[in-house]
């Protein structure tokens, strides 16, 4: 089985990039992202419900 140099370089570059990103992310960043995503989803849901309610009152 032959491995070309291009694939080896590509795999090395991608895995190195992923590992360097994973190492720089701490638990605080992940927690903040989860909390912000939950708040955003909740606000989006509530605004949608409010707008539907207002639309039904108007019609």
Question: Any key phrases for this structure?
Answer:
59 residues; elongated; 2 helices; mainly alpha; 88% helix
What does it look like?
This protein is mainly alpha-helical and 59 residues long. It has one domain (5-58). It is built from two helices and no strands. The protein has helices at residues 5-24, 27-58. The mean pLDDT is 89.
Helix/strand layout:
Elements: H1 5-24, H2 27-58
Give me the strand/helix succession. HH
Roughly what is the average pLDDT, rounded to an integer? 89
In oligomeric terms, what are we looking at?
single chain
Low-confidence region ranges:
none
Fraction in helix: over 70%
Helix run count: 2
Shape category: elongated
Distance between the amino and carboxyl termini = 69 Å
Q: How many beta-strand elements?
A: 0
Described by strand count, sense and barrel closure, the largest sheet is:
none
Structural class per helix/strand content? mainly alpha
Q: What gyration radius follows from the Cα positions, in whole Å? A: 23 Å
Please indicate the count of domains. Answer: 1
Strand content: under 5%
Short synopsis of the structure:
By secondary structure, the protein is mostly helical. The protein has helices at 5-24, 27-58.
């Amino acid at each position: 089985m032959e491995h070309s140099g291009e694939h080896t370089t590509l795999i090395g570059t991608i895995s190195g990039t992923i590992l360097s990103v994973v190492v720089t992310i701490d638990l605080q960043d992940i927690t903040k992202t989860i909390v912000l995503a939950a708040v955003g989803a909740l606000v989006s849901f509530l605004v949608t419900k409010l707008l539907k309610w207002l639309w039904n009152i108007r019609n």
